[in-house]
Structure formats: C-alpha cells, structure tokens
Design a protein that fits this description.
The complex is a heterotrimer of chains A (354), B (951) and C (204). Chain A has 354 residues and is mainly alpha-helical. Chain A has 13 helices and three strands. The longest helix of chain A is centred in the N-terminal third of the chain and has 33 residues, at 85-117. The longest helix of chain B is centred in the N-terminal third of the chain and has 19 residues, at 134-152. In chain B, a hairpin with a 2-residue loop joins strand 6 (122-125) and strand 7 (128-131). The chains are: A mainly alpha (354), B alpha/beta (951), C alpha+beta (204). Chain B: Belongs to the prokaryotic molybdopterin-containing oxidoreductase family.
Chain lengths: 354, 951, 204
C-alpha cells in the first residue's frame, strides 16, 4: 500500500496541470465568444479598404494572386489578404489546442484510472535472478536518445502551444522571455537531431517489429488483460509494434512537417507552413498522448520492464511472462550456456529519466 | 510597373549614419565609410553602417524647406537637433501640398543621412580615384580651363548646369558662363520642356504653366497627354482628384501606356507614340465639325485659327485613325467631353515634348485650348507640369545656350541690358568672347551647343561645328548623363574629351561610364537642403528654402564652388561686383536682388528675398484653392508671387496666379496675351480685338509699353523725375527703374501689351504644326505623306539630321517601338534617389514592359532577362516585365537607372562607398538620334528596337 | 475611448508609395521590411486599383490569439503593439495575420527569423526609455499627439488614420461628394453597385 501511495504522488503534477488547462481553456473559449462576430478579418478589411468594387473585393477576399498583382515589397509573395490565415487560426485555437489538451489529459486520466483500478502489473512468478540480455548498449543508447529528445521536444512543443495560458502567469516578464526563447531555440535545433535519431532507431528496431500472426491474438486478448493466461509475444509484443509503427508513420509525418516549419529559408509559402503546423501539432500531440501510455507501461505499469531498458537485462520470469516466444527463442539459443547472471545492480543514479 | 517577383532578394541593411556619427568616425577612418560587402546579385550592396538616427532630447529647430524632387513644390518641415536632421513633419499648412508627399518627398530626410555621397574632391589617376583638397582641385581644374581657353577659345569648355540649382545658383552659373566668354551652357530644361517653352511662348507670350495645381480644382475636364502625374507629380493628384470628386471633372488620359493616371481616369485613349499632332487635329476636326469651338474668344484673342482649320481639314477621322490608331467614335467622344466640360485644361509632359516634332506638339495642344477658349480662365489653361524642382526657375534665369536670363536672347541689346544690370562694361564682355564669325554668326550672339548635343559637339567634324573647335572639356554640374540619348556615342565622346569635371552631391553616371583612366575630376556639391535660396515651382511660384543642415562631408554649395572657380579664372571681381561674398560663399540674397533688377520680361522683379521669406513664414495664410493670402503679412498676395510679379518689390504686385486672365485687374494678377510678335502681319492686326483685362484704361488691344508709348498716351508725366531719366529711350523690358511697368499697371494695362495668341508661328519650320513621322518610325507607309524635315547644316552650332535618318528603313531589324518614362520612386538619372535606401528598396531592377502578346511572340516570360537593342545598336540587358500596360507594338523602359552599361557592371568604377544601392542599365543606352527642329530637344519617346532573350 | 484604425480610400490611392517611405522615415525600419506596403490589383489593366496596407490593428487580432508568448497585445485605443523582448520568431503571427503585416528580418534555417516587426500605428512599443523605444520600434507619434506619418503624408489623402468613427465620417463625406453611395465616381465604369463602402460608413 505504501508503495502504491508513493507511486501515486507523481500524478499530482499532471492533475494540477489538467485543472489549470481546463480553467484556461474555458476562459479562452469565453473570451472568443465575447469577440466573435464583432470583427472578422473580412470586416476589418471592409472598413480599411472601402471604395472598391465587388469584383476587386472578391479578388481581395479570395487572396488570389494573378499575373498583374504587384506589391511594393520586393520579395513578397503575399496577396493583400491571407485568406487561409483565419482558417489556420481557427483550426489551431479551436481544434488543435483542445484536441491536444483532451488527448494528453485524457490519456493521463485513463492511466490514472487504470492504475487505480488495475494497479501495477506484477510478475506472476518470483524473479529467478537469472537475467536475459534484452537491450544491448547501442539499443539502449538509441532509445534513450530518442526518448529524451522526444520528451524535450514534447515539453517545448507543449510550452509553445499552452505555455502562454499556463505558465505565463507563473513567471515574470524577464524569465518568461528567456524561457520562451530557450524553448523555441531548443525545439528548433533539437528537432532535426530527433529526426536523425528517430530514423536510426526505426532502422535498428525494424527486425523486432515485423508483424506476426500471434500479434493479432495478443491484441484480441488485450495483452493478457482479457481472458486467462498471457498471449504469445516475441521480442516485441503487438503493443510495442503498434508504438513502433506509429512512430514510423505519424512520427515521420511530424518530423517532415517539422522540418518544413524549421527551414523557412526555402521560401515555402505561408499556406504550406500553416498546413505543416496543423499536421505537426496534431501528430505530435497524438504521439505525446500515446507516449504517455508507453512511458506508463514501461515504468510503473509493469514490474520488471524498466530494468531492461536501463541495464539491458531482464529477469527470466518477466521474459517468460511477457515475451514467451522470445524467451523460448533465447533459451533455445543459449541451452549450452545458461543465461548470464548479473554481477551487480546498476547504480540508481545512472538510471535515465523517464 | 514594378518587378516584385524576384525569388532571392538581396538585403542591404541600413539607413546610413548621422552627421554626428560621421564626424565621429571620420576621425578614425579616412577611407570609405560604407565598405561594401558584396551581396548576391550585382545590383545590390549592403552598407555596414546600419544604425538608426539616435533619439535625442536636444531642442528641435524647425526649418521650412521645399522638396527637391519635382516641380510641384511641396513644403516640408525639417526638424533639426544639434545639426542633425532628425525629423520630418508634414506641412499641413502649405498651400500646395497640405503636408502630402509621394515616396520621394516622404523620404526627404534621408538626404541628411546619405552615406553614398561624394565625400571630397577626387580625381582619376591611372584608373584610380585619388582624394584631393579643394584648393588643389580648383587649382588644377582652373589651370586646365585657362589653358584650353587660351588654346581653343572659350567655347571649348562647356558649362552644363542644372535644374537642381536654386534660382540664384542658376542665374549665377549663366552669368559665370557669360563672363567666361561662352554661350556653351545649358541645363536639363533643354531635354525636358524646351519645346514647351518655345512652342507656348511663341503662341501667347510666356512658355510656362498658365494656371496652378491648385486651380486645377476648378477644372471640369482635364486632359493628360504624354503626362503621368501619378508617378511624375503625385501630389498634383491631390488637386486633380478634388476636381474629379467635387466638379465631377472628366479625367482624360491620352498615352501609349495605360499609366497609373489612366487607372484613375474616366476615359483613356491609347495612341501611337509620335502621333500627337494628328491626334489633336483629329479632336479639332470634330470640334470644328460640330461648332464646339469658342467663336467669340477666337475672334477676340486668337490669330491664325483659320490656318489651323485648313490644316485640320486634312485630318478627317479615317486619316486620324490610320495615323494614331484611335477610332472615330473615341475621337468624337473625347472631343465632346472636352467641349461639354468647360473650363477644362490640358496637361502635358515629356510624352509630348521629347520628340523631334516637340514644338509642333506643344503648339497643337495650345491651339486646342485656344479653340475651346480655355486659356486665361480659372479651371482652364495649358498646365504644363515641369520636371525638376527648379527647372522652371533655371529656365527663367536663362541657364540656357540660347538666351540670357529672362529670355532676353543673345542679341546685342540683350547683352547691353545685362551689362547695365551687372554694372559691367559691354566692351569688356565682348572681349571675353571669340570674336570670329562662324556659320551661326558670332559666338557671343549665336546660341551655344545644347545639352542634348554636347556629344556631337565633341565628336562632330571640326569644320562642321559653328565655333572655333570641338568641345574639349565638360563640366557636368548637377547633370545625369544617363538621361540623355545615344549612350554608346556618349561614351566615345567622353573618351575624347581632355577633361571631365563632375560637380554633384553624387558621383553620377558621368563618373563611371567613360572608360577613361585620367582627366576626370569629381567635386562634391551639397544638396539644396544644405544651402538656401529660392526655387520656382511649376506654377511659377517662387518659394524660399531654409538651410536645413550644414553641408555634409566636404561638400560645398554650388554658388561657393562657382566663386572659387571664378576667382581662379580671374573674373570673380566682375562676377560678384554687387554681390557680397562672405568667406568664400556669395550671399544668396544679394544674387536674388541682382536678378530682381534685371528680370523685367518675366516679372522676376517683385520677388525680393524679403517678400519671399514673408511668404515662406506664412504658408498658413494662403488659400488652398486660389493661393491668395487671406490676411496676414502677405495679405492679398498670391503664394510665391507667381511670375510675372510686375515692377519692383515696392510696387507690391501680388503675382499672377493665372496667366492671361482678363477677369482680373493687372494690378491684382490679371493679364492679357502678350504682344510679342509685332502689331500686324500681312495687314492683319495681331492685337487683341475688343478684349482687355478688367479695369484697363485701354479698352482694346495695344502694343508693348515703351517710353515713346507712354508719351503718346500722355502718361509720361506719371513717372517720377528719376524714373523719367531711367526710362528715356527704354521699354518695359529694359527700364531698370521699373517706372514704365509701374505706370502701365497704374492704368491697369499689361506692360507687355495686349495682343492675340497666334496659331501661326511664322518663324518656325512648321508655322502651323504638322504631323511628321518620327525619324525611326515603324509606319514606313506614312513616311511619304508625313515626312520629316530636310537635314539642317547648322542649328545650335551643329549639323542636325532629319531626312537622311528617316530615309533608312530599319523596321526589318528593329520592328518594335521603344518609349521611355518615369517611375515614382526615382527622379531623373536616379543617382541621388537610387542612393537612398528607403527609395532604392522599392525599385531594385531595371526592366522593360512588354505586352503579353509580344512576349509570347518573342518567347519571353515575365521576369526573364532580355536584350533590348536600339535602332542604332545600343544594347541594354534588362528584366522583362510582361504587362498589358503597353500595347503590343510598343515597349517601355524607365530611364532612371544607370551604373550598368551594355551588360557591364560599372559598380567598381565608383569611388569607394559611393555607388548607389541599385544599379541598372540606362534606358538611354538604347535610344537614338533625333532632335527637335526648334530647340534641339532629344527624341526619347519614340524610336525602334528589337528584343531577344538574354542568356 | 477612441478606436484607432487605418482606412485606405482605394479610389484615391495612386500607388506613389509615399506611405511606405514615410513609414521608413518615421521609424527607420531596416531594408527589406516594409511595415506598410502598397499592393496593386490588375496592374496595367482597366480596373487597376492600388491599396495601401499595414497592420489593421484588428479588434479581434488573430496575431494576438496565436502568439505563444504574448509578444502582441492590444492597447485600450485598439492599437496592436508588439514587445520585441518577448518575440521568439516563431512566425505564427505571420501565418495568422490576414494582411501580411508581421515581418521578420531574417528567414534562416532552424526557424531563425529574428524579432518580428510590424506597424505600430506610430505608437512605439514597450521600452524603458525614449531612446530604447525609438531604437526598437521607431517613433511614438501618438504619444506626441500626432497620427501615423504614413497617413499624414499621403499624397492624395487616400490613407486615413485615426478614430474609426471620425475617419468613417470623412470617408462618408467624400462618398456624398462623389455622388455615389458606393463610393464610385461619375462615369467610372468600375463604380458598379457594391455595398461595401456603405457598410464601411455605417460601421463604428
């Protein structure tokens, strides 16, 4: 019980954030209600540019650029009206932001409920003390690189989206400016690095994540939550594979859209960047939500899993329980030489965050 | 109009630095301030000094000055702190612009911060620019001038002045040239409105805008022909649009291009370049056909309209359509609009004047207005918008090769008049000149070579030139050589000169296009914001400018440079006999007073410095519609005492806001047509018939006033004894006491008489304007019926070709008509404006406008580089701007660019740090031969070219 | 409280770019950034119309809504200002702005754009001293009781600036003088019926 209580404490912060966010979103929604209908960009333009005829006005509003459009700005590619700007704003503020909040907070809530109801998934059998090598050093290094970049990018990304509402009141002017500048700089410079690392990780882990027939069973049984006994799983179970393929699809989309945003020096159009931004945000928020699940399962959600990614070795009992096919495969391969035993526990200080 | 679709735009930082910063730095570094980092394309450079003018709490001094970028004459409040021009505020109380500015005026303050200026005297030695002291520069240049004068006579040195001078400097340079013993002096009016001045003055007396910009508010129809005020005179649009909004005035634009002005018009007519006379005759055909002419007006005030009728009869609609391309219905509609909306005015600019037939065009415009009875009435007029800020004043003050100040001409009488004003011995003056006689007569009395032709003055066979030798040295004193035609030949001429001296705030294209390695001097003159003086706006108003800041760098005011040179050349004592010189700077006010004493013909006599300054200090008292002061110290005066401001300043004449307006008394600014052309011709009286100005004691036409006439009229006794002594044997133009003018006006008579305007200028090659095809015409089928003139052996000292050029058919190789014009951001040759980052940023590319259909024919896409080759082989490499603005057979290039020559970038030939931000090919590299038969105006608006894609 | 607005009378705008350089003059904005620009539609064709635009100081400013840092904010008189110290150069204001008002001095890799710059209605911006304010934002003419220089210097008085109600009144008077409710002019083929100008005059 005391262990459970201690484990619960880390949920206080997310819960607090959730409350804050909901309050702020509510306020924002109210603020928008108050001004909506008062003045749209169209109305602003109608006031600012009277005395043009209907055809010109249609042209202005549509944002079209024909061959005989000129601008006193030498390098401008913009029409008078950025027709998609308002759309982007609406999508971002009315859909993307709430979606992200709901996804992330929802996931946190689900995790919380799950934890409270189901609790930590313990090892069915006691540890044997025999360890199997699951993650070699290179794999761990890659994983933690990507993981820490992901977390940093996630946090900075969330700051860019929600920071103004959530944290601005907390910090003073000076600190806020520095914080946000740092946030944006980190996000923009780490992004391309993340892209590289992600590609490496995806390449490295590909062989573990090719779909197998038993993955379907695994999924049907909810990874062992439904029905009796543990479904079959190889090195990676179906849940992990889904995570892998999410990263390989949505993750790449996020990376590409991020690069579009990060390198405006190629003169990509404003519209392109608007779309890239929406895609990037949606993808990243979705991944963040899923990642929370991944983190939960990989840490407190499952006993004996984290040590695999910290020390590289997992206990025989854990392997048998969660990755029976892999266990058998390894056993088969190592019949002659029984699984190595750990000489010592890794010092906890070396444990990476997460 | 603008090329905006450049994908990679180089950026140049920077606004330049303030004077204080400059002073601070120049102590540390003697070299160029703005060492350039090469940026991307060869067009653009970045300055490294990118700071803002610092904010200062120092007390603000507010100066009143006038924009120097065009002749509209916009007032400016310049705020100065500790000698730095830190602020510019709109002069809402200024009667002409009410605070408004175009791009150029709104960036005026940058003149006080320009880093691209010529910073100290320099000379070219073995292809490198060397810094000189002023003393050394004047010494070397002066010695060379003395040497050349000794060897080749005074006519071997050419003093090319500027419309950017103020009145005093323009007058002083003309006097300078006279005392140097030559008429080889001129300025940009020659290539701007010389055909206007000649044509209009010969029609009704004075060659200037008859009404004012403000008066345009009263017009009910405004026809722009060859004029694009939206770009060339943007602030004039304020008045034009008021007429449109308040009077529902008809705005008619006649132009080969659909200009920005056309976009604001009710009615646009596209005509073929060079067909103006035919177009006007086409209008008059309908006017006469429908009896829309003002018969009473013509009977009373116009001579020779019947001659016009018979000429016009040869221009029925189908002929006009064939020549101009304008269909009958449009012609009739245009004529009807003009006839039904009176008073109306006509506005023309370079589109009308810069033709071999320029004088015919301007006279045809005048005749149209006379037929409609529009001259001399409020809301009517021939509203000729001048170009440079003081082109009107510099013209009036005679900075021209064919006249002394005040249009006195070059006759002995004229010289004697000015010798009296200058208090110099006439015989001494005669002794300054080459006494020999040439084809045009004695050089003292023969028009000098014009600015448009100095190139031929250098290159022409010596025996064909009507002076002792070719030109050996050129002074480019505020001149943009790239505004002149025939670039490649100009480069040849420059190579042949023995000395070139550029006196200018900027190095100008003259400093870089010559391909010389020696014999070029650059002297830094300051801008008009670093000196003071009067400037004449297009409406003939004189405005006084305060000195805003002290001259930047080592530059000096032009009149000070004139003093230094005169001293070196040995005639400073005579030149400044009645002008005080403080230090080395002649006192501007004394110069004003001196020309006040001599400029009787055009009434530059009443505008004393004191009166002008009173007007300057009381902008707010002048009415925005009439320009008349309501109360205040200048009560009743018209703003700037628009000339003629008769008599002496003491007479207190209010100036003449509308020329030839008989509804006012002469003493209150009324006027009649000038009796300039005699009393009768072939037995027909030239004097007005039953028309006279209000209150006139002579209620019919009368000749110009002379001492004898006063005696005949019995008014001699009205003169004071002193005046009688001065006036004896004199006339209204030569009586230095002003008594004759005073008495004439006391009887409400115009001193210059009361005559008819004449449609028949019997002294011109075409007494009645004729349509003549351009020298380079694309319509070979019309050459037989409308040929140009025969070649002339000597005109302004040079052989001038017409027929021999037109005879050659080049349409096979050069099928496209090439015309040129202005952009709003730049002025003239553009060296000054292209050196101002705020403006340069707006137009970074030289271009050629090509109709989409022609572009498709040529296989050229928008934004591609093309070669435009003029009919004489000059080639320019420019960007294609595909636009329906021009017709399919016409292409257009703006003429403000320079610093590229036939594909070669001349950037590195500028003294370090003084190249403009934007360089480009000069349109005039591709323009061709062709000069007006009266004034030697150059042809820039209609030649032929071909276009091919550049690799 | 007045609500400050710009209004460009397109029938008077002649694309002289005076407003563009007037802005440079007042604020000394660096090369490449034009807080105010002039766009021309149908250039060179009958129907050519030019419009001067800058920040419209929108009532419900999209830039403020999307800015992640509160760089952008609105004063009580409706003027939208920006705090350069807070700007991180993310470019969101540029994506959102309907009028292309926000601009950045750079456009480099890793989203390095520098600090956003835009029209301040000649009202400067947050700074500790006048010197700093001028250096960062340019003139604060509003503080001196003056209007933006672009409008004050407009060559044809096409560009109006000031309290929305007042400038709407000025424009309404012009429309009346022109004799057309729609702001068109006599004989102008473009003056087809259009309720826009009418709307504009009603508003405020």
């Amino acid at each position: 019980m005391s262990i459970a209580m201690r484990d619960l404490r880390w949920l206080v912060l997310p819960a607090l954030l959730l409350t804050l966010l909901l309050v702020t979103l509510g306020q924002q929604a109210r603020a928008q209600d108050a001004t909506t209908g008062e003045a749209t960009p169209g109305q602003e333009a109608a006031f600012a540019v009277p005395a043009v005829d209907a055809d010109t006005w249609r042209q202005i509003r549509s944002g079209e650029i024909d061959a005989n459009f000129r601008d006193s700005r030498a390098d401008s590619t913009y029409n008078l009206i950025n027709a998609s700007g308002e759309g982007w704003r609406q999508i971002r503020d009315r859909w993307v932001s709430p979606f992200g909040a709901i996804a992330i907070l929802g996931m946190l809530g689900v995790i919380l409920v799950f934890y409270l109801v189901v609790g930590r998934q313990r090892l069915d059998e006691p540890r044997t003390g025999r360890k199997l090598l699951r993650w070699p050093v290179l794999d761990r290094a890659l994983h933690w690189s990507v993981a820490s970049l992901f977390i940093l990018l996630g946090l900075t990304g969330l700051m860019l989206l929600y920071g103004k509402a959530l944290l601005r009141p907390v910090f003073g002017d000076g600190a806020w400016a520095g914080l946000m500048t740092g946030t944006k700089t980190l996000h923009n410079y780490l992004g391309p690095l993340f892209a590289i690392m992600l590609l490496l990780v995806l390449a490295r882990f590909l062989r573990h994540n090719l779909p197998r027939r038993h993955d379907l069973t695994w999924l049907r049984q909810g990874g062992g939550m439904v029905g009796k006994g543990h479904p079959d799983a190889g090195f990676a179970n179906a849940g992990e594979k889904i995570w892998y393929w999410l990263l390989a699809s949505v993750g790449l989309v996020v990376v590409i859209s991020g690069l579009v945003l990060d390198f405006p020096n190629f003169n990509q159009a404003r519209d392109t960047m608007q779309w890239a931004n929406v895609i990037h945000a949606l993808g990243a928020l979705g991944l963040t939500a899923v990642a929370l699940g991944h983190i939960y399962i990989g840490t407190i959600g499952t006993e004996g899993v984290l040590e695999g990614m910290t020390h590289g070795y997992v206990d025989e009992s854990w392997a048998k329980q969660h990755h029976n096919l892999w266990y058998e495969e390894v056993r088969g391969r190592t019949d002659e030489a029984p699984p190595e035993e750990t000489k010592h526990d890794a010092p906890s200080a070396s444990r990476p965050p997460g | 109009m603008r090329l905006t679709r450049s994908s990679s735009t180089p950026r140049a930082g920077g606004l330049g630095i303030s004077r204080r910063q400059f002073l601070k730095r120049s102590g540390a570094t003697t070299g160029g301030l703005a060492a350039a980092g090469f940026m991307g394309t060869p067009m653009m450079r970045r300055v490294d000094a990118a700071e803002k003018t610092p904010y200062s709490d120092a007390p603000i001094e507010t100066k009143r000055t006038v924009c120097s970028h065009c002749s509209v004459g916009c007032g400016v409040y310049a705020e100065v702190q500790e000698g730095v021009w830190t602020g510019q505020e709109p002069a809402f109380d200024h009667p002409i612009n009410r605070g408004a500015h175009c791009a150029k005026g709104a960036s005026l303050r940058q003149h006080g911060h320009s880093t691209r200026r010529l910073k100290y005297p320099m000379k070219l030695v073995d292809g490198e620019w060397q810094r000189l002291s002023w003393d050394q520069a004047i010494e070397e240049i002066g010695n060379r001038v003395l040497e050349l004068t000794e060897q080749h006579g005074p006519d071997s040195v050419y003093w090319l002045g500027s419309a950017k001078f103020n009145n005093e400097q323009a007058y002083l340079l003309r006097k300078f040239a006279a005392l140097a013993g030559t008429n080889n002096t001129d300025h940009q009016a020659r290539i701007c409105h010389s055909t206007t001045v000649a044509g209009v003055a010969n029609t009704w007396g004075y060659g200037a805008m008859t009404n004012s910009l403000n008066d345009i508010q009263h017009s009910r129809a405004i026809m722009f022909i060859g004029s694009n005020p939206c770009e060339a005179h943007p602030v004039a649009l304020q008045h034009i649009l008021l007429a449109k909004e308040r009077n529902q005035a008809e705005i008619i634009v006649v132009d080969p291009r659909f200009t920005r002005t056309a976009a604001k018009a009710d009615h646009y007519v596209r005509l073929r370049p060079g067909s103006d006379v035919a177009f006007i005759w086409g209008l008059l055909w309908h006017i006469f056909e429908n009896g829309w002419e003002d018969r009473d007006y013509i009977a009373q005030r116009v001579y020779g309209m019947d001659d016009v009728r018979s000429e016009v009869a040869a221009f029925p609609p189908e002929v006009v359509e064939n020549i101009t391309g304008v269909p009958e219905a449009t012609m009739r509609d245009t004529a009807r609009r003009l006839a039904e909306n009176r008073p109306g005015c006509i506005v023309w600019c370079m589109g009308g004047t810069q033709h071999t037939t320029g004088n015919n065009n301007t006279r045809a415009y005048c005749i149209l207005e006379l037929a409609l009875g529009n001259i001399g009435v409020s809301g009517g007029g021939a509203n000729i918008f001048r170009g440079h800020d003081n082109v009107q004043g510099a013209t009036d003050l005679g900075l021209m090769s064919h006249s002394l100040p005040g249009y006195y001409g070059l006759s002995e009488g004229a010289w004697r008049h000015w010798a009296r004003v200058w208090d110099l011995d006439y015989d001494w003056l005669v002794g300054r000149f080459d006494p020999a006689e040439y084809a045009d007569g004695k050089p003292m009395n023969a028009s000098g070579i014009t600015v448009s032709r100095w190139v031929d003055g250098v290159l022409e066979e010596e025996e064909a030139i009507a002076q002792r030798t070719r030109l050996k040295a050129m002074f480019y004193w505020g001149h943009a050589v790239n505004s002149q035609t025939r670039g490649p030949e100009m480069r040849r001429a420059m190579q042949q000169l023995e000395m070139m001296v550029v006196v200018d705030p900027y190095p100008t294209v003259a400093a870089v296009m010559h391909d010389r390695s020696d014999g070029v001097y650059l002297l830094p003159a300051c801008t008009q914001f670093e000196t003071t003086g009067s400037v004449t706006a297009t409406n003939r108003s004189l405005q006084w400018r305060d000195r805003v800041i002290e001259p930047l760098f080592e530059s000096k005011p032009d009149h000070e440079i004139m003093y230094l040179l005169a001293r070196k050349l040995g005639f400073a004592e005579q030149l400044f006999k009645h002008i005080r010189v403080e230090g080395n700077e002649p006192l501007i006010e004394d110069i004003t007073r001196e020309f006040n004493r001599g400029m009787w013909t055009v009434g530059y006599t009443g505008q004393s410095p004191e009166r002008l300054k009173a007007h300057q200090q009381n902008w707010h008292t002048f009415n925005f519609e009439t320009l008349q002061a309501q109360g205040g110290p200048a009560d009743g005066d018209y703003y700037g005492l628009p000339w003629p401001c008769w008599g002496t300043a003491e007479l207190g004449h209010p100036g003449t806001p509308i020329l030839y307006d008989t509804s006012k008394k002469v003493s209150e600014g009324g006027l009649t047509f000038r009796a300039r052309f005699g009393i009768e011709r072939d037995g027909v009286s030239l004097l007005a018939d039953g028309s006279f100005s209000r209150g006139s004691e002579l209620d019919d036409g009368y000749p110009e006033f002379t001492a004898a006439m006063l005696k005949d009229l019995g008014w001699w006794g009205d003169l004071t004894a002193q005046e009688q002594q001065a006036a004896e044997g004199q006339n209204w133009k030569t009586d230095l006491s002003g008594g004759i003018q005073r008495v004439a006006i006391a009887h409400e008579c115009a001193p210059f008489g009361n005559a008819k305007a004449r449609c028949n200028v019997w002294t011109f090659p075409d007494p009645i304007p004729k349509h003549r095809e351009p020298l380079y015409t694309s319509r070979r089928d019309l050459v037989n019926d409308y040929p140009t003139w025969d070649d002339v052996a000597s005109h302004y000292r040079l052989p001038t070709l017409y027929r021999s050029i037109q005879q050659k058919d080049v349409t096979g190789t050069y099928p496209i008509i090439l015309t040129s014009g202005r952009l709003v951001e730049y002025e003239g040759g553009g060296e000054e404006t292209r050196s101002m980052s705020w403006l340069a940023e707006l137009q970074q590319q030289m271009f050629v406008e090509i109709n989409p259909a022609l572009a498709n024919d040529l296989g050229v896409a928008d934004g591609e580089m093309v070669w435009v080759e003029g009919a004489e082989g000059g080639r320019v490499r420019v960007q294609a701007l595909v636009t329906p603005r021009v017709a399919r057979e016409v292409v257009f290039m703006p003429f403000h660019f320079g610093g590229m020559f036939q594909g070669e970038n001349l950037h590195d030939r500028y003294p370090e740090g003084s190249a403009p931000y934007v360089l480009g090919e000069a349109a005039n590299t591709a323009t061709t031969y062709g000069y007006d038969s009266v004034t030697q105006m150059q042809e820039t608006k209609c030649t032929l070219c071909r276009i091919e894609k550049a690799g | 409280m007045a609500t400050m607005k710009f209004m460009c009378d397109a029938e008077r705008c002649i694309e002289c770019n005076g407003c563009v350089t007037a802005c440079k003059n007042a604020n000394e904005v660096e090369w490449g950034i034009q807080r105010r620009r002039v766009v021309t539609l149908d250039d060179g064709e009958p129907g050519e119309v030019s419009i001067s635009v800058a920040c419209m100081h929108c009532d419900d400013a999209p830039c403020i809504a999307v800015c992640p840092t509160e760089t952008l904010y609105q004063r009580d008189d409706g003027i939208v200002l920006h705090d350069k110290d807070l700007c991180i150069g993310c470019g969101y204001c540029l994506y959102a702005c309907p009028f292309g008002a926000p601009q950045f001095p750079q456009q480099s890799a890793f989203g390095e754009r520098g600090k956003m710059d835009k029209c301040t209605f000649c009202a400067g911006g947050p700074a500790d001293s006048k010197e700093e304010e001028y250096a960062k934002y340019g003139a604060n003419r509003i503080d001196e009781g003056k209007l933006p220089l672009c409008a004050e210097m407009c060559s044809t008085k096409a560009l109006l600036a000031g309290d929305a109600q007042e400038i709407a009144d000025i424009f309404r008077q012009r429309v009346v003088r022109r004799g057309h409710e729609d702001g068109g002019w006599s004989g102008n083929p473009r003056a087809a019926a259009d309720s826009l100008a009418h709307d504009a005059t009603r508003r405020g």
